[in-house]
Amino acid sequence: MSSDFRILIVDDQRPNLELMEQLLAREGLHNVLGSTQPLRTLELFNSFEPDLVILDLHMPEFDGFAVLEQLNRRIPANDYLPVLVLTADATRETRLRALALGARDFISKPLDALETMLRIWNLLETRALYKTLRTLLPPEQIELLRHPRA
After folding, report:
1. Angle (nearest 5°) at CA 109 between 104 and 112
2. What is the pLDDT of residue 128?
3. Which strands form 52-56's sheet, in the order they lie side by side?
4. Could you tell me the end-to-end alpha-carbon distance of the chain, in angstroms, rounded to an integer?
């Protein structure tokens, strides 16, 4: 699998950001952009064009739910761009709300390094397969795969 994946990390706590960057670097993932400023997420998303967004939920001023709402409006319906949520809040309400807003997976804090990387690689693999599929199929067939008619 390619190590050229672009990963955007948004977490208001610098130590959490550095930990995630180190974890990714150990796996050969160096094309990483980290930010402690959730208000800049959409700007960074548009300029960096990530393959994966890793997002903390509970941040001051502009929380991860607000960021998810922005990203949900920005990511086209016929695209697959995974958002992995970091949270210490494992309540059902939080998980359902984040999933409804477009999150694809969760990592609970404190992080387990192996589980975190397995989840990240799974999401990146799906992203890579989807990008390949987009080159092979017309958009309407991809849309049928995403939302099959009953």
Report:
1. 85
2. 94
3. 32-35, 7-10, 52-56, 83-87, 105-108
4. 34
| Residue pair 119/105 in contact by the 8 Å Cβ criterion | yes
Calculate the CA dihedral of residues 19, 31, 35, 20 and round it to 10 degrees. -10
Name residues of the chain where pLDDT drops below 70.
1-3, 141-150
Domain extent listing, the chain: 7-146
Tell how strand 32-35 and strand 52-56 pair up. unpaired
pLDDT in tens, 26-54: 999 999 999 999 999 999 999 999 999 99
Question: To which residue do tokens 């948004």 refer?
Answer: 10
Q: Give per-residue burial for 26-61: e unless 16+ CB within 10 Å, then b.
A: eeebeebebbeebeebeebbeebebbbbbbbbbbee
Q: What fold is seen in the domain 7-146?
A: Rossmann fold (3.40.50)
Structure tokens at 14: 């610098």
Q: Pick from 48, 99, 42, 97: which is nearest to 74 by CA?
A: 42
Reference 98, options 63, 61, 68; nearest CA is: 68
CB 4 within 8 A of CB 24: no
